[in-house]
Amino acid sequence: MRIARNRHGRPGPCRAGHRGGRGAGRGRTGRRRAHRGARGMIVRLRRNARIEGVLGRFDAWWQGLSTRERVLVGTLAALLAGVVLVYGVVKPVQAARAQARADIRQAETLLARVRAAGRLESAPRTLAAGPPQAIVTSTAATAGLQPTVAEANGAITATLTDAPYPAVVTWLGSVASTSTIGVRRVTMQRGSASGRVNATVEFQP
Fold first, then answer.
1. How many Å apart are CA 205 and CA 194, to the nearest integer?
2. By residue range, what is the domain housing residue 83?
3. What is the CB neighbour count within 10 angstroms for residue 158?
4. Whole-prediction pTM value?
């Protein structure tokens, strides 16, 4: 039997049991990790087995079809993919592009008409009298519109909801031709139906 001695040469307690305990603990930890790894592998194997089972059933079904049936199934799948592509991707993209082009044309037409109305001069030219806010409201009423008009920071803002587009153009042209009020900014969006718009117009007195 071997007796352990300390640095002074005296017999000391043996640490073999302690080392053995540490070794046993490491062994148990290793076994737990191996068990966890085995469980993860079993789950993956089960998932792979399910996928392989589905693929196997599909392959068996496909092999059981005749050549004519395979051609029919392939043709049907191609037609279905084409329908999904056309109505799920192509049609929505075309509709969005057409709507964007219509909005651009509408905005360009409005801008051109407003600029043309601002350049027109009548001889003699009769200007509307009264405060700018009253002029904006009265000209809108003449065009058959009822905007919400507010004045802040030296500018007049008029808001229209679901208004006829031709009436909006007529109103802006009337403001430009019968007063010194300028149109600073026009924001327009499509309304609830074709030919109707939601507009916000900012005037500069």
1. 32
2. 52-123
3. 22
4. 0.43
Q: What is the CA radius of gyration of the chain?
A: 42
Residues 204/184, Cβ–Cβ less than 8 Å: yes
Buried/exposed code over 163-200 (b: 16+ C-beta within 10 A; e: otherwise): bbbebbbbbbbbbbbbbebebeebebebbeeeebbebb
Asked if 194 and 139 sit in the same domain, the reply is yes
- 159: alpha, beta or left? (left if phi > 0; alpha if psi -120 to 50): beta
Per-residue tens of pLDDT for the chain, all 205 residues: 444 455 545 555 444 444 444 544 455 555 555 555 555 555 555 567 778 777 878 888 888 888 888 888 888 888 888 888 888 888 888 888 888 888 777 777 777 777 666 554 444 556 667 788 888 999 899 889 989 998 888 889 999 999 988 888 888 888 888 888 888 888 888 888 888 889 899 988 8
Whether residue 170 is found in the same domain as residue 200 = yes
Domain total in the chain: 2
